[in-house]
Amino acid sequence: xxxxxxxFNSPNIYGVEGCSxxxxxxxxxxxxxxxxxxxxxxxxxxxxxxxxxxxxxxxxLTRRLTFLFITLGLTCGPTFYITIMEHNGTGxxxxxxxxxxxxxxxxxxxxxxSIMPSGRMFGDRxxxxxxxxxxxxxxxxxxxxxxxxNRIGSxxxxxxxxxxxxxxxxxxxxxxxxxxxxxxxxxxxxxxxxRFFSNALCTNQVAFMLTIIYIxxxxxxxLDMFLWYIIWNTVFSIVRSFTLGLSIWxxxxxxxxxxxxxxxxxxxxxxxxxxxxKPKVTCPSFPPFYSEMFMLRLPF
Length: 300
What we know:
Layout: H1 2-8, H2 11-14, H3 22-48, H4 55-88, H5 92-115, H6 134-140, H7 148-184, H8 205-243, H9 252-257, H10 259-268, H11 279-282, H12 288-295
């Protein structure tokens, strides 16, 4: 998403003579899908070194790697054609249509790579009933599924986090960055020299500064994500506390001192258990220093 936003607001960098055509803008922004595909290719190549090189594992990874290279060609190949056509002045409507199609293919690829586990991509090894994938189904891919209410809450949390983050990042980070890019691209410092480096560094000082701004903007892009996660996670935690009938101001010490009784009541207590066994006997409580340590934390 950072590449999508930044490429859309940096038309002076890839434009012909500082002016970008609509076809070139669509195609340059669509290269964000190629960035996502390259990340997936590097992750797949790294996965080869972590798993046993058996036929079942290597065949699955090789098939995924083949599809990823095809996706890479679809997300970055049209850019070469559009660039050549635009420089020759023969772009026209065909280049514009090709750039729009490339952009939507890139968006679909980026969304799929973001929400779909890599093990279920280009061939699901978990849903199948084959015995050769039994180890994956039993160990690495064996996780409990959420009930309907908790799953809706989890999806809603991440929709709010990403929605607020992408909206705020576009209007307050990337859009405000467009004007400095427009001014600084191609700027050269004149009449400067240095004793050791002559004018090689000071002439390109603006280019170095623009690179630093890009890197800083990327860092802030990640920090915004963490900020919105903390905000919405706090909101959901407070709502969850009231839903469970707990006060958000309840000290952690009280929660942990009641934990043995709750374990006893929810997990260990059965009708066949004799009355003589008490919760404190069945579930030894935490040491005192744990209670003091958790009491210092905020309840949410």
